[in-house]
């Protein structure tokens, strides 16, 4: 069984347990559910935008513990101060060490910055959860979902005022997953079957296949500003970076230094 399949099996059990504890109706009356969402698309397309989607991630299945010393508040505030266009916060606990509380703390600490709930979404319940946490954007992974599931989850997110970042790895996933409920397409340069590190060739290869109506985001394996400049030439506006910042003692400073490189 692949790492992704193992995660999805665990996630479905987790969601079933969550549903038994709190209803959707109750979620709709809690947390940040009533707030208006910030637009990731607008943040990424502003002329002065860095395009950086900076991620708070404690660990991963392939790397183990990355950084469990720093708080989500200090990291995300430093990211925002350094110029991050969006904050990505992991909420999966077993495999990535994230929690719902992490997301809510980051939301309170960064009220004006778009935020992505990074998790493995398999059920409409999680979309409502994301809204209650204060998410502006949810992630849908094409490799983990059928076209019908993507339509159902993406349509619900849009109806709640959130945007969807659709993550794809190849042309087949892209072609079967698009719809008017998708505003942002992310190309993951990492192989989700084994989480192996690759390069940004996947982003280059798929660039012309992504509709002009969608904002293009390149995810992972972005080693420096020169790579970003190259990807901008392919039409990319967003760049999701996590581990390279999180593996330092000061992720916010790492982002600032990254942006200030010649």
TrEMBL record:
Pathway assigned in UniProt: Amino-acid biosynthesis; L-tryptophan biosynthesis; L-tryptophan from chorismate: step 4/5
Enzyme Commission number(s) of this protein: 4.1.1.48
Highest taxon listed in the record's lineage: Bacteria
Gene3D superfamilies the record matches: Aldolase class I
SUPFAM superfamilies registered for this protein in UniProt: Ribulose-phoshate binding barrel
Bilayer-spanning residue ranges: none
Pfam families in alphabetical order: IGPS (PF00218)
Reactions catalysed: 1-(2-carboxyphenylamino)-1-deoxy-D-ribulose 5-phosphate + H(+) = (1S,2R)-1-C-(indol-3-yl)glycerol 3-phosphate + CO2 + H2O
Gene Ontology MF terms in the entry: indole-3-glycerol-phosphate synthase activity; phosphoribosylanthranilate isomerase activity
Keyword terms of this UniProt record: Amino-acid biosynthesis, Aromatic amino acid biosynthesis, Decarboxylase, Lyase, Tryptophan biosynthesis
GO biological process: L-tryptophan biosynthetic process
Coiled-coil region list: none
Domain Indole-3-glycerol phosphate synthase: 4-253
Name of protein: indole-3-glycerol-phosphate synthase
Gene from which this protein is expressed: trpC
């Amino acid at each position: 069984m692949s790492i992704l399949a193992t995660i999805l099996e665990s996630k479905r059990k987790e969601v079933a347990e969550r549903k038994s504890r709190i209803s959707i109706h109750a979620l709709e009356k809690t947390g940040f559910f009533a707030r208006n969402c910030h637009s990731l698309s607008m943040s990424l397309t502003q002329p002065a935008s860095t395009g950086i989607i900076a991620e708070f991630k404690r660990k991963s299945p392939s790397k183990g513990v990355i950084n469990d010393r720093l708080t989500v508040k200090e990291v995300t505030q430093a990211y925002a101060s350094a110029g991050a266009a969006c904050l990505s916060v992991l909420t999966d606990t077993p495999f990535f060490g994230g929690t719902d509380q992490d997301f809510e703390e980051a939301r309170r600490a960064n009220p004006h910055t778009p935020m992505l709930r990074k998790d493995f979404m398999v059920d409409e319940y999680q979309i409502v959860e994301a809204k209650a946490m204060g998410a502006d954007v949810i992630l849908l992974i094409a490799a983990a979902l059928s076209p019908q599931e993507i339509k159902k989850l993406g349509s619900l997110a849009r109806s709640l005022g959130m945007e969807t970042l659709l993550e794809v790895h190849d042309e087949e996933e892209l072609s079967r997953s698009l719809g008017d409920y998708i505003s942002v397409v992310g190309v993951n340069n990492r192989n989700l079957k084994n989480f192996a590190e690759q390069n940004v060739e996947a982003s280059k290869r798929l660039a012309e296949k992504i509709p002009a109506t969608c904002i293009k985001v390149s995810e992972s394996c972005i080693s420096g500003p020169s790579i970003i400049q190259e990807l901008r030439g392919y039409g990319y506006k967003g760049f999701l970076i996590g581990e390279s910042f999180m593996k330092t003692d000061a992720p916010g400073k790492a982002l600032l230094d990254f942006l200030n490189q010649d």
